Amino acid sequence: TPLSHIRNFSIIAHIDHGKSTLADRLIQLCGGLTEREMKEQVLDSMDIERERGITIKAQTVRLDYRAKDGQLYELNLIDTPGHVDFAYEVNRSLAACEGSLLVVDATQGVEAQTLANVYQALENDHEVVPVLNKIDLPAAEPERVREQIEDVIGLDASDAVEISAKTGLGVEDVLEAIVTRLPPPQGNPDAPLKAMLVDSWYDAYLGVVVLVRIIDGTLRKGQRIRLMSTGAGYQVDRCGIFRPKQEMRDALGPGEIGFFTAAIKEVADTRVGDTVTDEKRPATEPLPGFQPAQPVVFCGLFPVDSGDFEDLREAVGKLRLNDASFEYEMETSAALGFGFRCGFLGLLHLEIIRERLEREFNIDLIATAPSVVYQVYLTDGTMVELHNPADMPEPQKIERIEEPWIEANILVPDEHLGAVLKLCEDRRGRQKTLTYAGSRAMIVYDLPLNEVVFDFYDRLKSVTRGYASFDYHITDYEPGDLVKMSMLVNAEPVDALSVIVHRARAEARGRAMVEKLKDLIPRHMFKIPIQAAIGGKVIARETISALRKDVTAKCYGGDITRKRKLLEKQKAGKKKMRSFGKVDIPQEAFIAALKMD
Ligand code: GTP
C-alpha cells in the first residue's frame, strides 16, 4: 500500500464511553470478522479484562476500507490501555499513530482520563477527530458535550461525528473521517530499518510476539535485527499483521503496523518504546522518548498456606513471562514465612496480578500493605531505595527520607467539590489550580503518592458518589518527615503490618489501624493487646477481650454432628488465617487494617 493510502489511529476514551464497542463495529464494517466470529468485544481478549471491562494489553488490528472516493485504504487501529497505571504504554501507542478518535459518551461528557490522553495525543502531534457516542440514548446531549470539548480541551468540535457504536448509526462517517481528516504516515523505504516497539506479549504457539510500527526501512522475514536499548540481536522468523486474526507477511514497510517473532526468550527482553533496527545496517539514532517502565508500588505476596509457596513461585514466574513491568523477588517475613516482594506500575496493576494469582492459579494470598519506593539518604552519604517497610534502616543512620509526589487532575461536579478538597487536604495535598468547565470543577493537586496509593481512588469515588474522575502522574521526589510504624499483636511485632507514614498522620493512622484490627481479629481464650508503635513508643492501643470458656461449652456441647460441622467450618475458616505467636489473624485483616474511612 502506498503511504498515502495508510491511516494509523488510536481511540481515546474514558472507561465505559464505548471504545471497545466502536472498535468492534469498525472491524465488522471492514469485514475483518464474520458475524459468527464476532464475539463480543474481540479486542479485550483476557478474561479479567472482559470481566472488569478494562483493556490491559494494547492490541492492534488492520482494516481494509473502500472509501467514498473509490480508493482502498489500509487502516491500522492501535488499541490503548485505559488506565492511569499504563500511561507510558498509552503514550507509546499514541506515538505509533498520526491521529486519534476522541470518543466521548454524549450522556456523560469529558472526563479526567480523556483529558490526560488527549493532551498526550496532541503532544504526539495527532490530528484528533471528536466522536460523540451513545446518541441513541434519550439522555444524550451532543450539543452540550460539543461545547464542553471546546471549552475544556480547546478542540474544535463543530464537525464532531455523532454516532451510536451500539446500533451502528454514524459509524461509516467515522471511517470517512479517518480517511479524509487524518494525515497519512511518512517514512523513507530506503533508509535503514527503524521501527518502534509498541507492545509485546507471550503467545503459547508463537513465543514472544512483538508489535511494531515501522518508521523507516523494511522489516523482513529472515532479517537479522537489533534492539537498540540493549544491543541484543535476533533473527526475524515470522512477520505479519492482525485482522484481528494473524496473517503472515514476508515484509512490513514504512507506515505499517504489524508483528514479528524472533526466538526472543522473554517478554522482559522487549521494552515498550525501544527501537528495532537492522543489525548490518543500523540506524544512527534511536527513536526519541524511550524510557523503561519502572514499578512504583510494591507489596509482599505470601501464600496463606505455606505449603503453596512452590506453586506461587511458579505462578509469579508465569505471569512475569507476559508482563515485563511486573517485578518480583523472594522475601521472608518473620510473621508470614516465605513469599515474594512484588513491584507494580500502580494499584490497578497490583489488583489484577493478585486476582489472577488467586483465580487462575488458585492460590490464597496475603497481600501486605502497598508501599511506594522511598529514597533513604544515609548519614554515610549513600542512598538506598526502600521497597519494604521491614527494611527501614535504623533511625540514627538516616539523614533524610524522600518520597514520590504526583500531580493529580480531578474533575468533579460542583456539588461534590468541597468533599474532594477536604479529601486532598487530609492527604497532605497542595492545591495548584482550580478552574471551572460548566458546572464541573477541574482541580490540580500535588499529593504524596504514599497517601494515594492505598485507598484514595476508592475514597474519591465514594465521597463524590462516583462522579469524580481522576488521573495522575509522578512528578518528583521530596523530603518528608516519614517514620516507620510497627503493629504489635499480643506484644509481638507483625512485620507484614508495618507501614511508613508521615509523622503528622501517624497517630490517626495508628489509631484507625488498631481499631480495625480489634474488629477483625476474632476473640481468643485470652486477652490480646493490639498496639501501634513508632520506635519503642506506643501511640495507639486497643484490647480484644478474652472469650469465656463456659460460653463455648454451652453453645456447642451435646449434639455431636453439630459439633463436627462446626469444627469443619472452623478448619475451613482457619485456612484463611495465619498464626502469629498464639494469635490467629484472618487474611483480610492485612488489607482492611490499612483502609482509612
Ligand atoms: P473500557 O474497555 O472499560 O475502557 O470501556 P470502553 O470504553 O471500551 O466501553 P465499552 O465499549 O465496553 O462500552 C461500555 C458500555 O457502553 C457497554 O455496556 C456498551 O454496550 C455500552 N455502549 C457502547 N456504545 C454504546 C452506544 O452507542 N449506545 C449505548 N446505548 N450503549 C453503548
Detailed description of the structure:
This is Elongation factor 4. Keywords: Cell membrane, Elongation factor, GTP-binding, Hydrolase, Membrane, Nucleotide-binding, Protein biosynthesis. It is a peripheral membrane protein. Belongs to the TRAFAC class translation factor GTPase superfamily. Classic translation factor GTPase family. LepA subfamily. Belongs to the GTP-binding elongation factor family. LepA subfamily. Residues 4-186 form the Tr-type G domain. The strands form 7 sheets. Strands 11-10-16-7-8-15-12-13 form an 8-stranded antiparallel β-sheet, covered by helices on one side. It has a 6-stranded mixed β-sheet with strand order 2-3-1-4-5-6, with helices on both faces. With 597 residues, it is of the alpha+beta class. A hairpin with a 4-residue loop joins strand 22 (374-378) and strand 23. The longest helix has 18 residues, at 503-520. Helix content is 26%, strand content 34%. Bound molecules: guanosine-5'-triphosphate. Guanosine-5'-triphosphate is lined by residues 13, 15-21, 53-55, 82, 133-134, 136-137, 164-166.
What attributes does this structure have?
single chain; about 600 residues; alpha+beta; eight-stranded antiparallel sheet; six-stranded mixed sheet; about 35% strand; binds guanosine-5'-triphosphate
User: Averaged pLDDT, please?
Assistant: 86
Strand order of the largest sheet: 11-10-16-7-8-15-12-13
From the helix content, strand content and strand pairing, which structural class follows?
A: alpha+beta
Q: Tell how many strands the DSSP assignment holds.
A: 34
Question: Roughly how many Å is the radius of gyration?
Answer: 27 Å
Strand fraction: 25-35%
Based on Cα principal axes, name the global outline: globular
Largest sheet: 8 strands, antiparallel
Separation of the first and last Cα atoms: 58 Å
Low-confidence blocks of residues: 46-58
